[in-house]
């Protein structure tokens, strides 16, 4: 080969499973041959994470339970799977970790680290995190909780490696749902109507007593119990309320 000569070499590659394969030998102008058959690449591991909350909305000072689910997609297994959840301490008074379905979890400074370990293809793991909202959190605040998952293998799809959940905080007076403004008006009208009816009935009873000249009399029966009654021409009350 002449010194300082410029050579170009074109290789054709074909993917076969986890290996990149080329023909057994390629020559460049008959000067040399390539005998290496395979280049091996690590297996893909598509990890995904989702997060849900219960309940939403949440009353000031009440609890919210987050559920994290990690899933391994693809034909190969994933190793060294780790989930990190950054809890918003500005709105959270306490944090309680549940027992994960796999691996172990810990919390430090509002950051939850869940060491899932290995995940087989198509398998999932779950962890619950219960937090208490601060009583000082302003009503209608939206609490945002974010988590992410990583693993040892190359992940071809990073769009599903993170999850965020928004939880709305409502005031204590919103604890009773279903009683709207019109519902409250209806209850007030019903209550006032009942009260007016009772007062009116009492006035009518008192008025009839005065018109008939009835004098209430108290007597004591043979058992020593008080008995109220009034006289009438036929031995019956003129009016019975």
Q: Given the C-alpha coordinates, what overall shape results?
A: elongated
Q: How many helices in DSSP terms?
A: 1
- In order across it, which strands form the biggest sheet? 5-13-12-7-10-9
State the share of residues found in helices, binned by percent. Answer: 10-25%
Distance between the termini: 128 Å
- Element string (H = helix, E = strand): EEEEEEEEEEEEEHEE
What does this structure look like?
The chain is mainly beta. The protein is built from 1 helix and 15 strands. The protein has one helix spanning 181-211, and strands at residues 14-16, 19-21, 38-40, 46-54, 58-59, 63-73, 78-86, 92-97, 104-108, 111-119, 124-133, 142-150, 162-170, 217-220, 226-229. The strands form 4 sheets. Strands 5-13-12-7-10-9 form a 6-stranded mixed beta sheet, with no helix packed on it. It is elongated. Mean pLDDT is 75; it is low at 1-9, 13-40 and 214-241.
């Amino acid at each position: 080969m002449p010194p300082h000569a410029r050579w170009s070499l074109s290789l054709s590659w074909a993917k076969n499973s986890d290996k990149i394969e080329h023909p057994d030998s390629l020559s460049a102008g008959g000067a040399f041959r390539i005998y290496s058959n395979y280049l091996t690449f690590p297996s893909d591991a598509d990890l995904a994470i989702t997060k849900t909350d219960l309940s939403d909305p949440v009353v000031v000072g009440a609890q919210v339970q987050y559920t994290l689910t990690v899933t391994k997609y693809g034909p190969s297994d994933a190793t060294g799977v780790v989930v990190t959840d950054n809890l918003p301490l500005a709105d959270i008074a306490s944090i309680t970790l549940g027992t994960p379905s796999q691996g172990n979890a810990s919390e430090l400074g509002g950051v939850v680290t869940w060491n899932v370990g290995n995940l087989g293809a198509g398998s999932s793991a779950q962890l619950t995190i219960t937090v208490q909202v601060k009583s000082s959190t302003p009503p209608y605040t939206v609490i945002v909780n974010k988590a992410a998952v990583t693993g040892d293998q190359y992940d071809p799809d990073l769009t599903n490696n993170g999850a965020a959940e928004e939880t709305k905080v409502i005031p204590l007076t919103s604890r009773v749902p279903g009683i709207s403004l019109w519902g409250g008006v209806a209850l007030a009208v019903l209550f006032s109507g009942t009260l007016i009816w009772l007062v009116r009935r009492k006035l009518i009873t008192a008025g009839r007593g005065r018109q008939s000249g009835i004098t209430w009399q108290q007597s004591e029966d043979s058992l020593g119990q008080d008995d109220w009654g009034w006289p009438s021409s036929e031995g019956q009350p003129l009016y019975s309320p």
